[in-house]
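Possible regression after last week's pipeline update?

I re-ran a chain I had predicted before the update to compare outputs. Posting the input and the new output here so someone can diff against the archived version. Not blocking, just want to make sure nothing changed silently.
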Amino acid sequence: MKILVLNSRIYSIEYELIEMPDEETLAQGVLEKIGMETSFLKHSPAGKDEVRIVEPVLDHIRAMELLIKVLTSPEYGVISAKEEIGAVGHRVVHGGEKITKSSLIDDSIKKEIYNHVELAPLHNPYNLKGIDACEKLFPSVPQVAVFDTSFYQNMPEYAYLYALPYHLYKQYGIRKYGFHGISHLYTAEHTAKMMKSPLNKLKIISCHLGAGCSITAIRNGSAVDTTMGFSPLDGIMMSTRSGSVDPEAIIYLMKIGHTINDVLATLNRESGILGVSGISDDMEQVINNMHKKDRRAALAVDMFVYQVQKYIGAYYVVLGGVDAISFTGGIAVNSALVRTLICKPLETIGVKLDKEKNEKCIRKEGPIHSGASAVKVFCVPRDEHLFIARETCAVLKCGDGKKK
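New output (post-update):
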């Protein structure tokens, strides 16, 4: 079965067409700047050169029409007609408490996605737009929603509740939801595969370090705790997001005249690596400036590394030890230096990197620990699209959902 995997955002759609259960990528790409005259599509068909198409795309349904046109193109397409697509799998950010697993999309699932628009205003509305566009263009094709939050819905109550009046949780759903669940679960499954050990026998700390950053403690295949909370803003500092901040600091900013929109912009787009360094939200550029003795660049790196170390240490205790630490996300898989800095003080819990393996493991998977390390350490490039295809296949029972 050919499964089209979609990640629909406010201005873009990432896609991948995957033959399942063989897990063969037929084509992948991204359509950027939806709603603008300068929108463009980057399309990479298997075995052919990447194509770049510049064409105004005003909304998500026109984006999907262009995507189908490209996939079925005689010149750089990979299928002859859209009818060859057997299912569509969607990444959906927020499913709330009721949705605990990937689900066949029907009116009730769409309602739950809509009900959490206020909690994920930059994601859920556009996830829905992608779903609606596919319903119009593939009316008889089954669609499956794979949720970032579902992985965390079985966390212990003491881990997901805030110490606020309990009625605020019951009335408004204010709790830790967790995000990046698709990435963390894929990373954990792949880590178990590399260790040749069942996931349900392992304790893993998964570190997703990219534009967004989160760390998840995983015991026996289930999330025990995670750094992101009520929103993806919580936890460790990120490229432009602040991570955890004393709530009183936010109240103070508003008392002295900052509006809610000012504060939201500050916390989401002007903070993190960008805000501290004053240079860029790109860790590679910040590291280059650190090597040039830029004090604020060095401070940004030190803060980032420290916050990751702090949570790894905390989750080591929460899990009662750890079998593996895995790094995923753009920062983690692209920077041997960041991994080295994070892991150096973790020698106290038995972590020892192999310098040569670590330095060679750039943008590829593999172990980076030494033979003397009591804790395994891995680099795992993200492949959320494959995970979504597997989940879609499992929901529709098109094989076992995983490559033999």
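Follow-up from reviewer: compared with the archived run. Residues 295-319 form the longest helix (25 residues). Marking as no regression found.
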